[in-house]
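[Meeting: bench + compute handoff]

Bench side (C.D.) handed over the final construct sequence. Compute side (W.E.) agreed to return the predicted structure before the next meeting so the bench team could plan truncations. Sequence as handed over:
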Amino acid sequence: MAHQDKGHYANKHQGERVDETISIKIHSLAENGNVTCAAAHKLARELEILPAKIGVQIDLLEYRISQCQMGLFGHAPEPKKIDPNIEVSTELMAALDGATADNRLSCDRCWEIATALKIKKLSVGSACEKMHIRIKPCQLGAF
C-alpha cells in the first residue's frame, strides 16, 4: 500500500485478527511506526512462520514496512535504493529471463536467484528495475 494509505493498512485484511504473541514481538521491533523488511523476515524465521503472516500482523497493527531488501521502497529520503547503473551479468540476466512470467517475478524467487548466484538481493532488485521486470508479489504482502 502506498504512503497515502497510512493508517488504513488493516483494511486489506478483513476478518483477520491480531495475534497477541506476534504483536508483542512486532511492537518491540517497530521504530517510528516502521518495521524493516529484514526485521520482519527475521521474526518469521524465529517463529517458524511464513513472512506473509508477519506482514498481515504488521498491517493489522498499522505499522509501515520499510527498507525493502530488494531496494524497492522505504529508503527515505529516496523512494528506492536501487542502482540504475548496474551492469547486469549474463548469468543474472539468464536467471531473470528464465524465471520471469508476464514480465513479473516474485520477491521470493528473486531471493532464490540472489542466493543461487551468491549476490546481494539489492543487485537482483536493481537488475529487475533495469530490465523492467516487476517484482510482485512481496513476501510480506506490501505489494
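W.E. noted at the follow-up: The helical segments are 20-29, 37-47, 51-60, 90-99, 107-117, 121-130. C.D. will use this when planning the next construct.
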